[in-house]
Amino acid sequence: MKRNSLYRISTIVFMFTGFFLRVIWFQKRNPGKMDPATQAKWEDLLRKIAFTYKRKSLQLEGLLIKLGQFLSARADVVPQVVIQELTDLVDQVPAVPWDLAKQVLESEWEAPYGSVLHKISEKPVASASIGEVYKAYLHTGEEVAVKIQRPGIEKIIRADFRAIRIVCWLAAKFTKIGKTADLPALYREMTYVIGDELNFKQELKNGEYFAQRYQDNADLYIPRYYGAHCTRRVLVMEWMEGARINDYAYMEQHGIDRAEIAVKLFNAVAEQLFFEGKFHADPHPGNILVQPDGRIVLIDFGMVGTIKKQDAAQIQGVVEGLVLKDFSRVIESLEKLRFLLPHANRSELERVLELVVQFYEDEDMANVDYELVQHITDDIQSVMRQQPIQLPSEFIFLGRAVSTFIGVLYGLNPQIDLMEVGKPIINEWLSKNGGDQAGVGGGSSGTWKTVQKYALDIGRQLLKLPRQLSESLEEPRRRREWDKVKQKNQFLHEVYTSRKRYAFATALMGLAVAGVGYYFVADQYLLWGGGGLALVSAFWYRSSAVKHLRWIEELK
């Protein structure tokens, strides 16, 4: 039944429609800011939705599991209560019976599997939403991993994509998501990236690309592929011993320094995520192994994204701007990356970005002025709500890869200082962007690059001094404007509340007059006059309530 396209589409659309209705109903019943009790109810609702989704995903499999795994890795945007429910999807994908997997294998090779393999395990060592991995031996004695696509998965994924397309349309039409995300573009990006994952020949090309890219890196290894035995639905690669990167007991057993591994992993993988070229779009712990000697192995190149040359330059600009505290550079790069629409208020965003950086750089948290912190937080939220900020669809998978990768690093070493570890990459960017003048004036290349870096840093700081001085002088005016905005909002809230209160009271009075005219004095004028007053007041109340809700939505 679960392979029937109509059943899958209707089930998925019905499930998501139910989710949307529950969320919309909750928001209608709880407009405005949440108090602790309302927040607890909201988290309970999200937990129930996530549990329903997980249960249905394990029942239907296919794209739902892939989406659940995607969401479980997005700690930056997905509430923790949802992540706790969906994390199990990484390890609970049910295995395919060996007879069905063997049929796929022999159909692809057009021969008994024994003609290629000397021996293969009948139980998979790993089971995922798209394929399963078995340990096998070639007739030459080499250990290999054989990845076999799940039977019928292409038909299932095609049906799921049609369902998700309908869900995206519903979300764009009836929820707030359509206002903050380009859902059609996101859908196209998802079909592109996940669609490639169904073609193991594309994964073979990706694997060979990364093997070439890291061939001189002693800290990172990419398994060798046996191209002669690889097809669209079967992949054969070198078998790699090791444990998941989050198997900390294994590392302790083999005397592996987790902090050192974190640095090695950052140096090896970070350049994928910030330089042009392909990047591993699914770097979760199951796809990163560590061997007894501390060597890191990267596997599974089914989900791979691409960073264009012009985008790579702007990503570097964001990182450099943050390191050098050149916030105008950060905003400029974000605008060129299409995160900001042209009419965004750049100076306001720069100010908010600077406030955020200063806040998180404050080490003496015990002496923080929490009234000021609340003021800053409110200020940030107000500006972010008002600015036209978007997440371009082509960066969805890059953002996922970055957040997943950072999660792995902090799991290895919770005290890791990414800014400090990333200095070599920042210096490389600065030296490249600063020109090819190494060796000028008789100095060494390394010395000249160091001078360039600090000269550029100091120059940028000096250039920012007039703006910083101006902003310091402007801060009292901003505070006054902020207070005016708060007073105006409070006044409008009281106006809308009063209108609803008066409308409600007038409607009750009209009903009372109509009741007296009908039951006690039999006066037609009182009956129709009171009824008319009640009806007009009801419309007045509804109009005031709608305007009040719209005003609240605009403030969010």
Automatic annotation (TrEMBL):
Q: Which InterPro entries does the entry mention?
A: ABC1_dom, Kinase-like_dom_sf, Prot_kinase_dom, UbiB_kinase
Q: Is the tRNA processing keyword given for this protein?
A: no
* Keyword Membrane part of the UniProt annotation: yes
Record keywords: Kinase, Membrane, Transferase, Transmembrane, Transmembrane helix, Ubiquinone
UniProt domain Protein kinase: residue ranges: 119-492
Query: Which stretches are transmembrane?
Result: 6-25, 502-519, 525-541
Q: Which SUPFAM superfamilies match?
A: Protein kinase-like (PK-like)
Pfam family membership, one: ABC1
Signal sequence extent: none
Protein's name in the database: Putative unusual protein kinase regulating ubiquinone biosynthesis (AarF/ABC1/UbiB family)
Species source reads Tumebacillus permanentifrigoris
